[in-house]
Amino acid sequence: MMTVLAPAPRPRSTDAYPSEIVLAATRTSADALRDLGVTGDEGLPGGEVLRRQAMYGPNAVSSHRARLFPVLWHQLRSPLLALLLTAAVASYFVGERSDAVIIGVIVALSVGLGFVNEYRAEKAAEALHDQIHHEAVVIRDGESRTVDVTTLVPGDVVALRLGDIVPADVRLLEAAGLSCDESVLTGESLPVDKTTEQVPAGTPLAELSGCGLMGTVVNAGSGRGVVVATGARTEFGKIAAGLGTHQLDTEFQVGLRKFSMLLVYVAGALTTSIFGINVVLHKPIMDALLFSLAIAVGITPQLLPAVVSSSLAAGSRRMSRRKVLVKRLVCIEDLGNVDVLFTDKTGTLTEGRIDYTRAVPAGVADATTVLRWGLLCTENAAAGGVAVGGNPLDQALWRSPAAAAEKAALTDYTRLGVLPFDHERNMVSVLVRDGANQLTLVTKGAPEIVLDRCLDVPQAARDALATEFAAGNRVVAVASRAATRPQVPTAEEERDLHLVGLLIFLDPPKRDAAAALRRLAVLGIAVKVVTGDNPAVAVKVCHDLGLRQGGALTGADVADLDDAELATAIGATTVFARVSPEQKARIVRVQRRSGGGVAFLGDGVNDALALHAADVGISVESATDVAKDAADVILLEKDLDVLADGVAEGRRIFANTIKYVLMGTSSNFGNMFSAAGASLFLTFLPMLPSQILLNNLLYDSSQLAIPTDNVDEEQLRRPSHWDIGFIRRFMVFFGPLSSVFDFITFGVMLWIFHAGAAEFRSGWFVESLATQTLVIFAIRTRRVPFFRSHPSLPLSLAALGVVAVGGVLPATPLARTLGFSPLPLGFFTALAGMVIGYLVLIEVGKRFFYRAAPSVPSTAVKPVPRSARRHLSRRAARFSTAARQPGLAPQPTPPPDTPGRGTDSVRRPERTEMAATVRHSAPSTSGDST
């Protein structure tokens, strides 16, 4: 057993001491390994890993867990609620003790109701976070394995491949064409080339060429490094650990806030008027104040956050069961706004289980030679005759029966150097020495690119390539030439090649993809294929699946168009083929400017820019690190059908949220209007403050069942967006209709039943609760309720149950305490007639209203620019824990103001969006890209 000594945590009280990574950068790789007590080939033993985990804690910069007090504060922070409680306390000390206590109890129940539902939603988000993990490839006990990034410790030896996000601060041990995008830390837009060389002391953070920094992205090449610092002790962690947890608002949240402010302004105006009227009529000032504040609390959407949170939490659970995970609950609603989907081909339209079928030799080579060079030309190490990692094409090649027959012959060859794949060259090259000590450069990649580097390509080979493309097959070309020097290949050497042959792979169309495409079409979503594959292959797949045929544009075609021309072309184009990462992002940006919601589904390194540019970025569990880091939504299965489920769920949640909003505007506004009118001619308050709050509590309780409601099919066919003007018109139109029956009730109570104050208040309480609760059955649909649109059973039971409670409350022992008195039986006959009349009037009103305003419009939404803060916050979210992990101690606090953490080039955004994280076991990408 190797004995290793872990370095002790740095002392906190040293301002002049360099950070771990800055210190390691000034030492050689061998010295860094010796300092950490580890060897590069063996890694740490399991027991030592556990000891260091206990010493250093999890490799995390944040935690995501439901917390009681922030949720409770969210319920208590309403200024109107604070004013009401203050007034209630004042009334208690001036003698109105019973009313003050009742008000306090009802407010507590209302706050508790909202708290319970929001906390449940927070727990749902925490559970979602627990389902998603990030992984890194690490050497421990002499073996390569994948582990959760939060379990890394100083001394771990990690592998870095194209598309990986560097999981900690590492001192590089190997670097093959390695470069990293460090813009998240330094703001530098160009990738930084990496070596294993040490740097002089005092070198700025942006010039630590021998190190990989946590949170940066492997832009090209591959490498290996030893972890020097983890969690909050990394350069990235020192920034992220000091950031707040405020999440960036989505369009959905902005709409909610605008609606809430609309009601606050209305409440302020009407409350002031009601208070002024009561004072002018010489009613007790304290009673008038409490009454006015209670009315204001009644109109404010106090449980709107709880209704929305309940909807989103229930939606996230349903989507999780359907294998769709969202990084933030509000992303569900954003997904519902999508009307254009750009997607890759592999795994979405095709099976994604690629099989190697055969080799097509060119010239004098035979099929065995083509296969053998294809197996050797990979940037991934072979262990036990199997390529570890790699892209799907390499994996398919190595697991094929033909490869098994060649494994013995491969032992005669030695790979001396690798030039890894990147998306500019679309090739990978290796230098190989055979048993006769002959050196050969072997290149493998996209056929068009490889053939351009070859001499004397036979016409028969070009014809064979065209035939395979027309059949929809995936093709990789293999070429070679003699080499003279045993050194790592360079891009300049990928020339004067001789075509060896073609490797043919089969990836047939998915059997259920055609049905999924039809379902997306019903949802009003235009599907467009964006692929790195050959256009003929993509068009063939689309034709086989019945996808509406538009044109096909290549990357060269896109480059020739300006943005205005591209915007026009996108509408008439179904396939974008052989496009670069920058072109993918440009296509998405241009479409976003055209209006509507744009989603991009991708899983490769070359998809990250487009994922960031889209309104909703969608990736899959098997995607590369950088793709999943850029995504908002993760599909556990790369299936368009589950994506359609997610879109429908988002639209269903928005539709049910709008139901609550329209309920609040139509009934609560009408109640305030009625209260203002009643104050003009009554000698007493039309309803006590405690009764108003109780009415509001019962009403809101019934509305918590709205998230379970059914949604009409036509509401799912297109996205809808917040339109405050529409909501305002709805409020002004339907609010007074509610007041009509309130005034009828006033007349019935005063002139038919000759009611006193207590009986009058009881009658209006029951009628108000019944009409504003039962109107949900009319407002929830544009159809005829019950006959052509059926509410959910929980909503029906909740509404009818609350009305029943309100009806019997004046006859219970609590009536005297609450200021009620029993109502005559004749009142309930009149009540039934008023409820029926009200619902009929609402139905007639719907016809007139929707004739002028057809629906909540699906208008074009101005695209929201993606900020740099959004990128950093998403990156920080991958290094987070939902709760303290078993066996991991808390992360030691980093030294304050440690030199090395703060070069002038490091940006410090103010906040971060703590999202969920996602499982990473990212393959590198080479060969033919999609």
Describe the protein in words:
47% of the residues lie in helices and 15% in strands. The chain is an alpha/beta fold and 930 residues long. The longest helix has 42 residues, at 640-681.
List the helices and strands and how they pair.
Elements: H1 20-25, H2 29-36, H3 46-56, E1 62-63, H4 68-76, H5 79-93, H6 97-131, E2 135-140, E3 143-148, E4 157-160, E5 169-181, H7 183-186, E6 192-193, E7 211-212, E8 217-229, H8 235-240, H9 251-280, H10 285-299, H11 304-321, E9 324-326, H12 331-336, E10 338-343, E11 355-361, H13 367-376, E12 382-383, E13 386-387, H14 392-399, H15 401-410, E14 414-419, E15 427-433, E16 439-445, H16 447-452, H17 459-470, E17 474-482, E18 498-506, H18 513-522, E19 526-531, H19 535-545, E20 551-554, H20 555-559, H21 563-571, E21 573-577, H22 581-593, E22 597-601, H23 608-613, E23 616-620, H24 625-630, E24 633-635, H25 640-681, H26 689-703, H27 713-716, H28 724-752, H29 757-774, H30 776-779, H31 793-808, H32 814-818, H33 825-852, H34 868-877, E25 880-881
Parallel strand pairs: 1-25, 10-19, 10-22, 19-21, 20-21, 22-23, 23-24
Antiparallel strand pairs: 2-3, 2-4, 4-8, 5-6, 5-7, 5-8, 9-24, 11-18, 12-13, 14-15, 15-16, 16-17, 17-18
Overall mean pLDDT: 79
Helix content: 40-55%
Strand order of the largest sheet: 9-24-23-22-10-19-21-20
Largest sheet: 8 strands, mixed
What structural category arises from helix and sheet content? alpha/beta
| Low-confidence runs | 1-16, 243-248, 855-868, 883-930
Radius of gyration: 33 Å
Gap between N and C termini, in Å? 46 Å
- Strand fraction equals 5-15%
SS elements, strand count: 25
- How many H/I helices? 34
Task: Categorize the overall geometry.
Answer: elongated
